[in-house]
UniProtKB/TrEMBL annotation:
This is Polysaccharide biosynthesis tyrosine autokinase. The chain crosses the membrane at residues 35-54. Residues 405-477 form the Tyrosine-protein kinase G-rich domain. It comes from the Bacteria. It is a multi-pass membrane protein. It is an enzyme of class 2 (transferase).
Length: 780
């Protein structure tokens, strides 16, 4: 298979481009040649935008702003900790969704009295809305009928419909990163827009109050139920504690069990008894040691502190004993031991000593009794403690469960007190009519419509028109797979390019009207019918306008033949094309006329036996021609006509209905003989052959041709078709002098050329083509 290369005149870079991704010169060339398509797209969309602006009803927007302020209730209730930014965002997003909700819309419908509002039920509709409405009506006609609604159901359905309409026209959004929520509503009635927007703000604030009151009310009811339950459970737990104490003898005084208090008291008493016993034992032992010394030494050797006894008699005796002893010493020193007074004092001293001794004996016996009592009391207390401790060990086992009961009762009491406090707070908060939001921008009546936005709509239409026109232009550009410039010929075929043949007057008119030129047209003047062999003027452009680009291209073709067929005295040149209607007959006639006018003996043969367009352009129909000459019915020279002006010999064709195998006729011996004779008489033989695409006549005649001129219609002949045909016919492609692009629109040519291409400088060549154009050529 042969690889197909498409020629796109686009701004995308070719494989050998090194300048960048996008060729700006090509892009500008594309825009220039497709500017009409782009402008048509812009004009279409602008017209649609104008039609929309004219028919679309005006819409008015009223807006209000609500500030979500948590500090509104700072004097009414305890403030919670400051919320994080994420929590604040969640609260604002929740407020936005609440405002958009169906429940809020229903409240607005009821509060604003919109149930029978005609501006909402039957608003002015744009053409698009009318089309949608019509489609829905048609679709509903094919749906099964529903049972009729009751008045209540119909009213509720209408209410829901109006609420849905409000939701569609409502716009709620957060204002930047603040705590402000903007609420706007669109309507064809400005008064209605302001009314609905204000109703939404009021409904939201009322909803906040109702929500707070309902939440507090529900909390109060729930807390009341919980309080009743906790009260009963707390009382029951306290009763269980008391009952358990009573059942287990766990009587308490001062917060302690009786047994524990008894042990504590007995221990205290035991300590005191032990202290008393020790004190009594010390006193007893002290007095006993004094008595054991005897009467004489009891007073002399023992010192009895006044703090150890309360016996005043003993103290008095001690005092008398010291006084008597002193007086006795004084008398003895002065008068001697035998003095009667000294003897009397001695007797008195001994009597006091006896009395002291007796007193000490009585005290010793008394302390002995105290010691016995203290010891008996200590023993008794120890026994009592041991008994109580035994009983308390049993009570301690029951005390564990008692502690559990006490903890339960205490916990229930604490919980009850906590719920009671919360219940009182909730009861107080129900009376606070404060919402955590306020309106900071009231809804006003709009004075100018907000939609449709004329400037934006027109600007958008221009942008969309540019995009659509550009897209369609790009599609046209990518689908442009035809020969446009010299580079297309070299890139697609690798052949020499001979030049452009401009689009002539009638061809231009036919192209604009979208039709091909009809053959056999009547002569324009009486001069055209002279001798019955004259061409139409369009077939003599190269002769009548020798300094035109048309003639210059054919001279280039002659030069190419001179170079390629150098050294040959006779030359047979075939003129071929890929498709019918590409102007090869016109090219062949003008090429032959140019050769003849230069003094060369030239024969023009119409070898297109299926569609002899060249023969049809003769002013008078021929009676004999090529077919008769080849078949030997007439001498070939008798069938030749001569143009008196250019001296061009013409061998036409007379169509025969029964002629089927034209290719065999062209490759027959008779045709070979005719061509051999023609070579002897003429310097150039120009043969107008059938197109290569539909028939094989040119292929059959190819062995008798020295070189070919290939004619392609500018902007109409697909490059792929020509390439494929020539690749399949190497006996023709190898002998092609070059390619001529016919019917070229010279005014459009420069738009398809790359930067630096010769086509861009065509205007600079006009000074070389100054000769007046022929009458047959009419500007497009």
């Amino acid at each position: 298979m042969h690889q197909k290369n498409f020629t796109f005149h686009s701004a995308l870079p070719k494989a050998d481009d090194q300048d960048g991704f996008i060729d700006l010169d090509r892009l500008m060339a594309v825009v220039t040649r497709r500017i009409r398509t782009i402008l048509a797209g812009v004009a279409l969309f602008v017209a649609l935008a104008v039609a929309y602006l004219v028919t679309a009803p005006s819409s008015y927007t009223s807006a209000t702003q609500i500030l979500l302020d948590e500090t509104m209730t700072k004097y009414a209730e305890d403030q919670p900790p400051a919320a994080s930014s994420q929590q604040a965002d969640m609260e604002i997003a929740s407020a936005v969704e609440i405002l958009k909700s169906n429940e809020m819309a229903l409240r607005v419908v009821d509060a604003a009295g919109l149930l029978n509002n005609d501006a909402i039920l039957n608003p002015p509709q744009s053409p698009v809305a009318l089309i949608k409405s019509g489609v829905k009506s048609i679709a509903s006609a094919f749906k099964p009928a529903k049972p009729p609604l009751t008045p209540e159901e119909a009213r509720e359905a209408q209410r829901q419909q109006i609420a849905a309409t409000l939701q569609d026209a409502l716009k709620v959004e957060r204002v930047t990163r603040s705590s402000v929520v903007s609420v706007s509503f669109d309507s064809t009635d400005p008064q209605l827009a302001a009314k609905v927007t204000a109703a939404y703000a009021d409904a939201y604030l009322t909803d906040q109050l109702n929500a707070n009151f309902d939440a507090t009310e529900r909390a109060s009811v729930w807390l009341q139920e919980r309080l009743n339950d906790l009260r009963q459970r707390s009382q029951q737990a306290s009763l269980e504690v008391e009952k358990y104490k009573a059942d287990n003898g766990l009587t308490q005084t001062g917060g302690e069990l009786m047994s524990e208090q008894q042990i504590s008291d007995l221990n205290k008493q035991l300590i005191i008894a032990q202290a008393d016993t020790a004190s009594a034992s010390a006193r007893y032992n002290q007095y006993k040691s004094i008595i054991d010394q005897g009467p004489d030494n009891a007073v002399k050797n023992a010192t009895i502190s006044s703090s150890q006894t309360d016996n005043s008699v003993l103290q008095d005796l001690k005092t008398r004993y010291l006084q008597v002893q002193k007086r006795e010493q004084d008398v003895t020193q002065n008068f001697g031991a035998d003095h009667p007074q000294a003897v009397a004092l001695k007797a008195e001293r001994e009597d006091i000593t006896r009395q002291i001794y007796q007193e000490l004996q009585q005290l010793t016996a008394s302390y002995k009794n105290e010691l016995d009592v203290a010891q008996s009391r200590a023993v008794s207390l120890r026994e009592s403690i041991e008994g109580v401790v035994g009983k308390n060990s049993e009570a301690n086992k029951s005390l564990v469960h008692l502690n559990e009961l006490n903890q339960k009762a205490t916990a229930l009491k604490t919980l009850y007190e906590s719920y009671l406090s919360r219940y009182e707070e909730a009861s107080q908060q129900r009376s606070f009519p404060i919402a955590k939001a306020r309106v900071i921008s009231a809804a006003g009546v709009p004075t100018a419509p907000s939609a449709p936005k004329k400037t934006l709509a027109l600007a958008l239409s221009v942008v969309l028109g540019l995009m659509a026109g550009g897209a369609f232009a790009a599609l046209q550009e990518f689908r442009d797979r035809y020969f446009r410039v010299e580079g297309d010929v070299r890139a697609a075929l690798g052949l020499k390019f001979l030049g452009y043949l401009p689009l002539l007057g009638q061809q231009s008119l036919d192209r604009k009207k979208g039709r091909k030129r009809k053959a056999g047209a009547a002569p324009a003047t009486a001069e055209d019918a002279e001798n019955g062999v004259a061409f139409e003027r369009i077939m003599r452009v190269s002769v009548e306008a020798p300094r035109s680009i048309f003639a210059e291209t054919l001279r280039n073709a002659k030069l190419a033949s001179d170079v390629m067929l150098q050294g040959r005295a006779d030359r047979v040149i075939g003129v071929v094309s890929a498709l019918p209607g590409e102007g090869k007959s016109t090219t062949a006639a003008n090429f032959a006329a140019l050769l003849a006018s230069s003094g060369k003996r030239t024969l023009l043969i119409d070898a297109d036996l299926r569609n002899p367009g060249l023969s049809r352009m003769l002013k008078s129909p021929p009676q004999t021609g090529l077919i008769e000459a080849v078949l030997g019915e007439v001498p070939w020279a008798s069938a030749v006509r001569v143009d008196p002006r250019t001296k061009l010999a013409i061998l036409p064709v007379v169509l025969r209905d029964h002629l089927l195998h034209t290719s065999e006729l062209l490759s027959s011996q008779g045709m070979m003989n005719l061509m051999e004779n023609a070579r002897k008489m003429f310097d150039y033989v120009v043969v107008d052959l059938a197109p290569l695409g539909p028939v094989i006549d040119a292929k059959a005649f190819a062995p008798q041709v020295d070189a070919f001129l290939f004619v392609a219609e500018w902007g109409a002949t697909p490059t792929n078709l020509v390439r494929d045909i020539l690749e399949q016919e190497p006996q023709i492609s190898s002998r092609i002098l070059g390619v001529i692009l016919n019917k070229t629109d010279m005014s459009e040519l420069s738009r398809y050329s790359d930067f630096g291409g010769t086509e861009r400088y065509r205007q600079k060549y006009t000074s070389y083509y100054t000769e007046e154009r022929p009458k047959a050529e009419i500007d497009a």
